[in-house]
Amino acid sequence: MSVFSNCLVSRREVLRAGTALAVTTLMLKPSPSFATPASEYRISPGRARAALKGENGPATGVWAYDGRIPGPELRLRQGVPARIVVENRLEEDTTVHWHGIRLPNAMDGVPGLTQPPIKPGESFVYEFTPPDAGTFWYHPHADSLQQLGRGLAGALIVEEADPVPVDRDLLWVLTDWRLDADAQIAPGFGNRMEAAMSGRVGNTVTLNGTVPGTQGVRAGERVRLRLVNTSLARIMALRFDGHRPVVVATDGQPCDPHEPDGGRLLLGPAMRIDLIIDMQGDPGSRHAVVDDFYDELAYELTTFAYADDAPLRKNPLDAPFRLPANPLPQPDLGDAERLDLALQGGMMSGMGGNMMGGGMMQGMGGMTHGRATWSINGTSMTGDGHAGMPPLMTLAQGRSQLVTMRNETAWWHPMHLHGFSFRVLKRNGAAVPHSLWADTVLLAPRDTVELAFVADNPGDWMLHCHITDHQTAGLMTVLRVGDAKDKT
């Protein structure tokens, strides 16, 4: 098993070390099918031990919600008020961000910007009514590199009132870790060289908290598979050998059911994809699920292992794939305000001068003498959020917004907007099919995307890269919706 040093020399070495994966053969434990949703939960982040290398491997010291990796699967009801109490058992401040949920600004979980941080030994009550059904997740927005990188993440599922018929509803929480030779989390969070490149890519990938082996399935069954990438930096491109998965939702929002281009699913950090898969393999057969995002560094994530039993049914289930629509406001492109956002910085990009905290940061070779390495429209905000963060732009409440986002860097960026879902309209001038909505859009180097949403949710909202090193090193800003006096 390869482990990074704190000083990395090349992108190739970052990626090669990041995909030297240890693999064992373990039967995965799928999440419960159709678990009963609840309206109240209590979760506690704190220190714990986890079997990231499998039950027979050494235990790893982690930070976890309720001692579990990933954290408890929270299931809520669409349109029903939820109350979640977070009790901080860490030795430092924390918050919880409910990623992808369209909720009131005061419940968004950004320390200083939307709420006071939760001090050690204290609690905070999050109350919101989820308007959308779908697959979401939760994680800290304080000391994000360490807290997320040491394990604080969990899935949040909002159940449809009338779900599509499937035989099983499975959740795969995919997480990337950097472990040392003793299976402990390696130090070196916030490495400046990594921050200017691809971020802290790890050397071990877990599926639902353990190094994956086989996933037991039965011929003829129909499965809904919810994929959640909670990694700090690893981008994944998944291929399901011998199967034809159908994408039915992205980032929790239903789309036109479709097979992915070339059979390859791109899943950046923080992104989610819902699939429906008809298991049409032969009884007793095995089929690999492969991640081949990084050139020449593909690895087998897991394997579908078919039971020897006779098929559950001879032909695929005769039922629709399309999920019920969520109540998203439709943008009016003819009356939209226009926003232009340029992502800048990083190694091999050149920063020039960037503003951080009101002062000029002079870049040199893609790195700066301060903490900022990246910028949006020439302005850098570092860290996790704090009081007094000035908005980059103020958007008229209730107006449609047409956003052009240009990646002027040599690196990939999954860009996440808090508080909203947006329609992905175009990529590099070409229309994006399948009516895709998202809260996190993945931009390849030099990509340009066009997005649209209705700015109907007042407050100060974060926009940042979800490669967490990039966020904390400046690729973050605030968009204000409505006047400052109207903040909630």
From TrEMBL:
InterPro entries: Cu-oxidase-like_N (IPR011707), Cu-oxidase_2nd (IPR001117), Cu-oxidase_C (IPR011706), Cu-oxidase_fam (IPR045087), Cu_oxidase_CS (IPR033138), Cu_oxidase_Cu_BS (IPR002355), Cupredoxin (IPR008972), TAT_signal (IPR006311). Residues 56-161, 171-284, 388-483 form the Plastocyanin-like domain. The keyword Oxidoreductase applies. Keywords: Metal-binding, Oxidoreductase. Pfam families: Cu-oxidase, Cu-oxidase_2, Cu-oxidase_3. The keyword Oxidoreductase applies. One of its GO terms (molecular function) is oxidoreductase activity. This is Copper oxidase.
